[in-house]
Amino acid sequence: MTVLELVKPLPPVQREEKPKDRTDFYLAVGLTTAVLALLAWNITGFPAASDDEGTYLAQAWAVQNGKGLAHYTYWYDHPPLAWIQLAAGAWLPGLIAPSLLAVAAGRIAMLPLQAAGLLLVYVIGRRVGFPRWAAALGLLTYGLSPLFLTMGRQIYLDSFAVVWILAALALALSPSRHLWHYAAAGAAAAVGVLSKETILVILPAVLVALWQNTARSTTRTWAFGAFASGLVLVGCFYPLYALLRGELFPGAGHVSLFGAIQFQLGSRSGSGSVFEAGSGANSLLHSWMYYDSVLLIAGAVATIAGLVLRRLRPVTVAGAILILVALRPGGYLPAMYVVQVLPFFALAIAGVLFHTLSRLQHGWKWSAIALAVVLAAVVVAPRWYVGDRRALTANDNAAYVQAAQYLRAQPPSTVVVDDVLWLDCVNAGYPEDRVLWFYKLDLDSEVAARLPGGWRDVDYIVSSPALRQDPGTLPTVTALLRNSTVIESFGSADGVIEIRKVDKEPS
């Protein structure tokens, strides 16, 4: 044997690679698919289409067709990124099923977004230390809530914003702790804010996650720097857009970003206090409780209790901030605000339950599990069954569908509608400048200029619940209703939709 043979290196040992554990993937995807099937079932029939949904969908249409950021003058009431995202997919359902109500097609386009939100709830649960069963419980608590099966079906900017802020939290909690994860977390947070500005209040929760997931001596400074870079670089596009258009500051003859902010913060009418009987905020809280008091009450209690649990704190800080914002007296509380609350309440419930069980001795643990199962079967399941069953069976949009079908069959004319039906008319071939959103008749000088003869230049007005909700506050709409005759009506009671022909000569 030669010396070279003696020093020749041994062949590398062939190590058998262990197959990667895909349990989390299959569990999360399986549960998300099941919840998504429930969300999609009867999505066109329930809940009733809202004017906000039609507005955002029409703005997405404007982006798709190169009409700018809105189908009317864009006045910076909200950042536009949510409906820009909606524009990327809203065309597909209508292409496949053109007979669908436009809002129904837009709801179907929201399903991939909601799937991402459900998956992120599971991911965040795992990254704050939940076992699989607790992360799955968080996903199901969120996804099976009647509030989610109602609000999650609708086209709301808050749905985009909350998914992006969940993505920011998931990235900030990444176990890999790569610097690009933190920069991406900042970018995701900025996209969330540019989807719905009110999500900005949850930003401290993302910072808490960053703080907990970084080491003080090594990565923390760099992590916060990367996060700030992503946040600023993406977030600055919105004010830059306004600056380049000469619309950053208020001035004569144009809208402005700071003018809109001033209106939202100082001029907009408040909703009152949630503790004041009869106030808008109090009525709104009762409407949320009607759909699901279990998740709201248990989630609020779990959020406050979970603030003492370090690993759960990013989630509970977010929930606590949202509670405080809702409780502030005199502020404006929109109906879709609860969309932001639901995932954090669901995670708080699952997290507090897990931490409680993990601290109990063996005998007490099984007693607590038995109690939780009994409460779920006796209290939660019956309430959720009633709410979920309504979501899966009710048909609250039949009148809108019939009205849309009637309008599509008529020759194009000048018609005043709410925003639910605006896109249906445009898709049916009505000239877009002759389909007028009722709210703009008295509040947009550009729209008023299209009607030199005032209300007499309108051929038809479609009277819907949204159009009738503020009687007497819009003079042109009031005149149209007074000087028109019902030629077709669909639905009944308060939800009736009337096609009214305008009488050119006042009665």
Automatic annotation (TrEMBL):
Transmembrane stretches in the record are 25-43, 82-101, 108-124, 130-148, 155-173, 179-210, 222-241, 288-308, 337-354, 366-385
The protein's predominant localisation is membrane
* Gene Ontology CC, one term: plasma membrane
Pfam families recorded for this chain?
PMT_2
**Could you tell me the keywords of this UniProt record?**
Cell membrane, Glycosyltransferase, Membrane, Transferase, Transmembrane, Transmembrane helix
Q: Which GO molecular function terms does the record list?
A: pentosyltransferase activity
Places the protein is found = Cell membrane
Signal sequence, start to end: none
How does the protein's chain sit in the membrane according to the entry? Multi-pass membrane protein
InterPro entries tied to this protein: LipidA_mod_glycosyltrf_83 (IPR050297), RgtA/B/C-like (IPR038731)
Query: Where do the Glycosyltransferase RgtA/B/C/D-like domain residues begin and end?
Result: 112-234
Answer whether the UniProt record assigns the keyword Cell membrane to this protein.
Answer: yes
- GO terms for biological process? lipopolysaccharide biosynthetic process
PANTHER family found in the cross-reference section? MANNOSYLTRANSFERASE YKCB-RELATED, MEMBRANE PROTEIN
Protein name as annotated: 4-amino-4-deoxy-L-arabinose transferase-like glycosyltransferase
